């Protein structure tokens, strides 16, 4: 029988909409058959999905779409790089030269040797003889000194000759020789804080992938919220601010008793929509050596978790909403898998969430120097959720934390 193109066209349309009507009828029938408990659970899942969608589409997506800034054509003002080191002889030997050899006309590097007992002193002595722009500040062991990184940072800031301060760590290496050009003081004199990005170096193993993925989501959050005009934290491995801002607000006096928070608590207290900028250019990234043991990573995250308790109330509320509803989304989905026929609808909501997020976060992973993790996004997302729940519970029972 000879095919008729026009007739086939209308037959295909009819079959397509008939299938949609049948599927819609099946969905309606499924909804009618739900019990009150199943309806409540499914409604809660949809609400959690809506909250999740808000953060993905209206906060994080803007970070994926924003244009990456160009590096300034020339340097404008001198700056001081501050690095705190405690027993970092090996890392300083490996990474410090990349900082000292930056393509920037006028800068100094201040390394604070904080009560080290390894070969840090000898390593720094050798660098001082080689580089004229290196200054070493030594914190000696003694009762008159306050233990902790914040004291070491304060000593470094006091020793700085310049107004603009750039911070990194001893186990970090700039992505390029133009790192300082990107992190220099902006032309807008109102800007007092610049938030950079610091990815972890890729290594083999699931732990490394989890560490990098968690760092990625932390960065997406604080960078995206800064774009929205609500900066709430920064990472000390790559950030900058004015020396006058530090002393005007009495440094770390408000939270000197807290072991962590020399970076995020300071930014949380003093960053505003008007005085804060971010840097996304890959040449301004600073690579950091990740933990190689799960216990070491847990200790690091416990320090960060403890600092978060002292954020401003509005920041704690928003971050809590984000975490709680993400937790509830997964928890409700798991519970609904035990109910028929609600499990089909729950599976549809979960699949829709995964599809939408898979269009956003793999793009951000590529932008933030983790392109290899794009293909593992769904698995790592679930593993990160499990880890954050575990770390949150552990932090309730383990209170004591320290730097190094």
From TrEMBL:
SUPFAM superfamilies: Nucleotide-diphospho-sugar transferases. It comes from Pedobacter cryoconitis. Belongs to the glycosyltransferase 2 family. The chain crosses the membrane at residues 41-61, 317-339, 345-364, 376-398. GO terms for molecular function: glycosyltransferase activity. InterPro entries: Glyco_trans_2-like, Nucleotide-diphossugar_trans. Residues 80-210 form the Glycosyltransferase 2-like domain. Keywords: Glycosyltransferase, Membrane, Transferase, Transmembrane, Transmembrane helix. This is Cellulose synthase/poly-beta-1,6-N-acetylglucosamine synthase-like glycosyltransferase.
